[in-house]
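Q: Structure for this?
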Amino acid sequence: MLEFDADNCSFPETNQKNVSEDGYELWMRYRALEPPYCAACNRLLRSLVFPGCSGSKTLAAARDELLRGICGMLGVTPLLSTAVTGEGTLCVGTSNTMPLISALGLPLDHLGKEGYFIGTVDVNGFHTTLIAANEDTGLLYGVFGLLRALQTGLFNSDFCVESVPKVMFRLLNHWDNLDGWVERGYAGRSIFNWWELPEYVDPRMIDYARANASVGINGVVVNNVNASSEALTDGFLVKVAALADQFRPFGLRVYLSAKFSAPIEIGELTTADPLAVEVRDWWKKLANRIYLLIPDFGGFLVKANSEGQPGPKDYNRTHVEGANMCADALEPWGGVVIWRSFVYSNDVARDRVTQAYTELTPFDGQFRSNVVLQVKNGPLDFQPREPINPLFGAMPNTNVGIEFQITKEYLGFQTHLVYLASFWHEVLKTDTDRWGRGSTVARVVDGSLFRSCRSMAAGVANIGSSRNWCGSTFDQANWFAFGRLAWNPDLDPEAIAREWVSMTLTRQPEAVELISDIMLRSHEIAVNYMAPLGLAHQMGTGHHHGPGPWIDNSGRTDWNPTYYNCADHIGIGFDRTAQGSGAVLQYSQKLSQTYSDLNTVPSNLLLWFHHLPWGFMLASGRTLWQELVIRYTDGVDGVERMIGKWATISDVVDASRFYQVSAYLQIQLKDASLWRDACVSYFQSLNELTLPSETPPPQHGLEYYKRLKYPHAPGNPH
Amino acid sequence: MLEFDADNCSFPETNQKNVSEDGYELWMRYRALEPPYCAACNRLLRSLVFPGCSGSKTLAAARDELLRGICGMLGVTPLLSTAVTGEGTLCVGTSNTMPLISALGLPLDHLGKEGYFIGTVDVNGFHTTLIAANEDTGLLYGVFGLLRALQTGLFNSDFCVESVPKVMFRLLNHWDNLDGWVERGYAGRSIFNWWELPEYVDPRMIDYARANASVGINGVVVNNVNASSEALTDGFLVKVAALADQFRPFGLRVYLSAKFSAPIEIGELTTADPLAVEVRDWWKKLANRIYLLIPDFGGFLVKANSEGQPGPKDYNRTHVEGANMCADALEPWGGVVIWRSFVYSNDVARDRVTQAYTELTPFDGQFRSNVVLQVKNGPLDFQPREPINPLFGAMPNTNVGIEFQITKEYLGFQTHLVYLASFWHEVLKTDTDRWGRGSTVARVVDGSLFRSCRSMAAGVANIGSSRNWCGSTFDQANWFAFGRLAWNPDLDPEAIAREWVSMTLTRQPEAVELISDIMLRSHEIAVNYMAPLGLAHQMGTGHHHGPGPWIDNSGRTDWNPTYYNCADHIGIGFDRTAQGSGAVLQYSQKLSQTYSDLNTVPSNLLLWFHHLPWGFMLASGRTLWQELVIRYTDGVDGVERMIGKWATISDVVDASRFYQVSAYLQIQLKDASLWRDACVSYFQSLNELTLPSETPPPQHGLEYYKRLKYPHAPGNPH
């Protein structure tokens, strides 16, 4: 984005209807508002009082953003003033920068360090809009709040909003390797160019920080959880510090993924035993070096003893001993250790999904207060649909945060249109029922259930060097929605979708309605063509693209789709009831009952919890086999419906983005058909049943699908 | 680039001085011309007669480009007309599309299929500018020729130019893997997104084709010479065809790197023996399939029996037998086989640089007429400086093309400013002296020396997904210069530099002078700090970044810098005279004498051909050791001078590009000092001599430099 030039404000060329856009602006797309609304807003924003900008990079950034937005949307730059001298002034300040705030006697304490208030006040008899906060970062968030209100048509002369983030740490996890390759990345290479840092800092880093601040994301783990120790060397930390300097004004802290064996690999120690004095010393000295370079360094993210990563168990130590050792090193500086709960043993368990719970719950209450356990939304691994992770609510004396996957490793990469917020909402609103009614996942995540001292929501980033950041237009919505939900896990995914569409694509009401509708239905559609009725882990090995329900020869048993579908000529599904693996018993008694009982288990989790005969009769009046085939077919039909709807709005979206979405929907249709046909073929080869009459036969024989290969799929670890 | 809208022409916003630019436009940057010149051009280009555009995608593309350029530079769109009815008309046509051309009786036959004529003619008494050609592609090149004349201030009422490419195949070789990773790529990932093709074709593909056409590049090998067989599967060819459809209007043909073992890997044969009937059949059927999809497919590029790649020698067949087999498959369709001469045996030779000549010259005259031997500029491997490859001129009965490396594998990657055209010019103007005086490399490459039926110049692309295409502004100049030199190997590198600066950065005369001067001195500066006096292959193993003159433990002897510097306490240099490896005898007698004689060998090739004692007295009056240290030091000083010069022009280049170049120059200075200090330290550790008094000591001890590592260097094969 080119720098903003307040002296030269006019509607930019790209305000022209249907001029092609490359998506680089994301939702910070400040196009001319429609005339009557534009005029009304103009009257309210004639002049701007924004003191303190020369002394604060955060305030300077907030003011620039405000001017950029107002200039773009209203076509004029407000008069910069030092006092309210007429109608239509916008005042932006903290009690430090603006005596007016104290004079007004507004209660602001409850806004904390990051919250903000926007409202109308009377100043010297003039109708004045005020953005107030306790800290500079709160004002920055407030500015973005005001701009969002303008973009979505909500701003008016009575506009009033108060917003305080419910979650303390709102983080992106970049699975970016130091050589620029992104694991499970579908949007090009890493946006972090370590080779050129610290000398050259890509201006894109500023736009990245703006985008995060605009949705309230306040931290970023810049390297892959499958970490390289080099990220902790002095030569690399200097580079991280250069990034941190750019991010700091935007309230964005850097974190690093730390490899547990770093003391050996780069520290020349012979052990990484967390109880060894020299190891503990090494981490402490490392923390000291880091904080000298990066005073607001966030902390370490650690993936330990999981999928081949080193960890404390290599030394017969526990996860607690490992995490607390790191925590002790960071504690003097205020840093946190984020310890991933995604651990599963090298020995294949009876049921892999039970392992993290079994392994970690005994440690509840033993983690240091600056440790946050980062728990994936479900117990398996970011599958298209999973029930909630049973760890939520099960560790009341531990800081438990949630990890969502924004990048669509298991949901069609960048070319499938899948809006994730509806699924995330489904997870967040689920009642763990462990601590009375309403002990939802959201209340675990925001810390309110157990009054956790540190709450956290992390999203695995879908961001890369693609010009449009996320590889596709609609994947931008998932970044946006993650930030909004991390700020407030109670937000409605439909409202978020409408916001994003209005800010990113069009404000035309019918089109907003139609596009939001496409988005909100999209996740269920994808689940249907990939893994309906609670199936999971049915994708090809390694690349995780395309169907492979027949695969039974992966490196370990619990990497096989057959391990998860348990399909044979008699039936299908993983029995996780008390009679099966017992995984269901890891939930609260009430939830366990709901999932165990065939009358109450949600149909979209049926085969997650139950193994059933193909002829099992469902409430729909169809057999399991019929229902399964119909769901797969519905998924494909759903993509066709999306294509039909999208085609109707060619006149409201610019040509480039319209074309890309259209082309990607064709890819999605091809892939959806493939998923449906391959899975139906395979299961039919087992049960030898006929298809429901209204569903078409697979296009090819099973052998065709088995032979398909996807070499060079993006995001696949080398 | 957004599409051009002729109805809405005005000077674009970015005409504003010093608005930041991201470099995406390359040299097709049509900014407003300075007022008096602008008005003069306007008078000559009031209206446009350009028939035939509705029937030809090439002509439509040419007309769009012309309007985009004129609108940008002159601020008005010429009146579209069907006949010359007044002063100041531009007519663009072939004898097919414009009866006027035939009526004028201009001799155009010698322009061939790609050449063009631009000149002034009298039409109905009106002063008229004419672009004429025999074919549509010639007109497209003519349009770019006219735009270049406008951009560089050469267009006027007497403007007259005739231009015919001297080289038939002007190709980019992309070392791009199918997963998007680019070998020796320093500009992000591949611009070819195979995962999304054929459904989605990135609009960037059009801009890529435009850029190539603008400098006359007419073919592109889209995949790495270290090839994957999947590139030849049906599923992949459909994707290539979709690209070819986009490239075709721009005169740009696609080629594929072919892996010699493909018949086994994807053809289910048990052999790839080029004399086996089933193998020959397999390649023929492959060619048939390709040409059905891509009627103008260019052909195959093959790296065989080199650095581990499979080839005919795996079956005890010769390079000729391998190449001719492929050639026979392509011959019916008019395709060519480009066979790389970069072959070196798995057995380490006495002198690796002699191998290709020894192996290939006996086959002169045996290659099919649709085989082109692609010969690297030097006998080793794209080192900072090498003498010419002795194969040039040595195979009079073979089509011999040249391969340059545009990507700077051995010249500091994207962050060092090194303009390569001066070195390429040095190679092209070198007289092989095999067929009388003036039998230069340029005359081998353009085919004029031996009347080759197929001439070729290939450049290993430096293009990637970076917004500025090449990773840095100045690397764009190398793409540009390669195209210009491939069109006409006799062009002057200084003229090319001035063209590029004027088109890309600024037209301000003093700045053009200064920037061109920086560019023209840059290669010698880099050679000095990396490998002065004819040293070569002194870089670190694998990543090829940074100094490693002490390295003696690579996988094979001839990958070791010590193999090439032969330095010990007595002397330094590789003896390639008749008394040494005899490599010098592979040149013509005259050239061999020049290089063998210490009085005539150019100082910049001294240690390439001679092993000399440290105390050897040079014509400069310095000992070899003194001279070596002074050259290294000069290299570093040269970078400092570049920094000083660049700093003076901050007001004529936009802020973003100015900053990036400034930051990269700081990286270059750091690296240059490192190269100098490390090499001087190492050689001093051998000879134990003191440094010349005017040169500073290395900053650190030798052990420091030996310990340096460059993990995660870009472009390094996994």
